[in-house]
Design a protein that fits this description.
Elements (H helix, E strand, L loop, with lengths): L2 H13 L23 E5 L41 H12 L1 H4 L12 H4 L4 E5 L3 E6 L5 E5 L14 E7 L2 E7 L19 E10 L2 E9 L8 E9 L17 H11 L4
Parallel strand pairs: 4-5
Antiparallel strand pairs: 1-2, 1-9, 2-3, 3-4, 5-6, 6-7, 7-8, 8-9
Length: 264
């Protein structure tokens, strides 16, 4: 049994989730009459490189074509992000330093909404009082509280999520995220005032329409929205695999410190 399958089963039991882990048609109903979102999902786009429309660009010179950035259509409604002037300058600086400053390079937790459209699958585990989402990237996990809304007690990488149903749409209110995550590899960022409202709407048994409304008065002049389809992984043995990316960035994070240590 794969690592994440074992973890998912333990989390499922601990949270009192009784729905099966593997693919279940999104049009199926739970015992409470709500859409059954259980399954493994993945975005198929280039939003993790840049959430806005972009052309091809070179990557780090040492990587050649392997590190090149593919062109892609944007997922931001209206096309442009409404940055405040000072924030626009910060975004430009982030882009210039993206090959060292992007939190993804350091294997930091991705935050919301970026965790949804990174090039890794994620698994939804649905119960009546809570919904858990397990991400393959960086061992990230979050629990969506479906009961009485709870305020964030402290800021965290994945924030505090409160959910409710509006018809067949799962609506998730996310607050309390740290300000150290980005929206993409191109330097689009937010502050600690970030407020995200997600919407997961079944389109068919294997497609969800995902929307995220972003509000951050410290960075943006107005709220804005991104949207994209999420696709169910249909492989017979679909499962999350183990990806502990921290072990791949040890030299980047700690190498300089090790080199400063002198032997007696």
């Amino acid at each position: 049994m794969a690592y994440y399958d074992r973890v998912a089963r333990r989390l499922l039991i601990a949270a009192g989730l009784v729905a099966p882990l593997l693919a279940v048609p999104a049009t199926a109903q739970t015992s409470a009459g709500k859409p059954n979102l259980n399954g493994i999902w993945q975005a198929v786009n280039t939003a993790n490189w840049d959430i806005q429309t972009h052309g091809p660009m070179p990557g780090p010179p040492a990587l050649g074509t392997i590190g090149a950035i593919p062109p892609g259509l944007g997922v931001v409604e209206g096309g442009e992000l409404p940055y405040l002037p000072e924030a626009a300058a910060k975004r430009k600086q982030n882009f210039a330093n993206r090959w060292s400053a992007d939190p993804e390079i350091k294997c930091y937790m991705p935050g919301v909404p970026r965790a949804t459209y990174m090039p890794y699958p994620f698994q939804i585990l649905q119960g009546s009082s809570s919904i858990m989402i397990v991400y393959e990237y960086a061992n990230a996990v979050r629990t969506i509280n479906m009961g009485k809304p709870r305020e964030a007690q402290v800021d965290s990488w994945m924030g505090t999520s409160n959910g409710h149903w509006e018809g067949n749409t799962l609506v998730v209110d996310v607050t309390g995220q740290v300000d150290q995550t980005w929206f993409d590899r191109s330097g689009d960022f937010h502050s600690d005032a970030l407020h995200v409202v997600e919407r997961y709407s079944p389109v068919s048994e294997n497609v969800l329409q995902y929307e995220a409304t972003i509000e951050d008065p410290k960075v943006f002049s107005r709220p804005w929205k991104m949207s994209m389809p999420l696709y169910r992984r249909l492989e017979k043995n679909a499962q999350l695999m183990e990806f502990k990316c921290a072990e791949f960035v040890e030299e980047l994070l700690y190498g300089p410190l090790r080199r400063k240590v002198t032997k007696p």
